[in-house]
Amino acid sequence: VQLVESGGDLAQPGGSLRLSCAASGFTFSTYNMGWFRQAPGKEREFVAAIRWGSGTTFYADSVKGRFTISRDNAKNTLYLQMNSLKPEDTALYFCAKGREPFWSGSRYDRDYDYWGQGTQVTVDA
What are the tens digits of pLDDT across the range 26-42? Predict the structure, then answer.
């Protein structure tokens, strides 16, 4: 299993970024996928998740209405569109693969078993 994030960058408050996560080594379409983030000195926190089949999405309250998670099963790629960025969105962003196939979505990191190396998002004027 390999997860490779990209798209992190320096953005201004109010700006937008789109993160990507290229997945390989498993049947991407059958697993829930999630985005988490970790800011310096803080614990890793849930950002968003998307279910394997229906594409049902879940968001942390802090990003709801600003971030959109999506997936392209044909390309084995997970996305996170981030709009209206705030300085408090600054963090290392990770994508993660659900632990079990055909499982309901989760916001808990214990329910994910593989993680990418992360991509840095910095929001600063």
Answer: 999 999 999 999 999 99
Q: Specify whether the CB–CB gap between 95 and 33 falls below 8 A.
A: yes
Q: What is the DSSP string of 26-69?
A: S-GGGEEEEEEEE-TTS--EEEEEE-SSS--EEE-TTTTTTEEE
Q: How far apart are CA 104 and CA 120, in angstroms?
A: 28
- Comparing CA positions, the residue from 98, 118, 4, 94 lying closest to residue 45 is 94
pLDDT digits (tens, 9 = 90+) for 83-123: 999 999 999 999 999 999 988 778 999 999 999 999 999 99
Residue with tokens 């970024």: 17
Q: Is the dihedral of CA 22, 65, 47, 58 positive or negative?
A: negative
Structure tokens at 79: 């996305």
Q: Give Cα 83 to chain centroid, integer Å.
A: 14
The whole-angstrom separation of Cα 101 and Cα 54 is 13
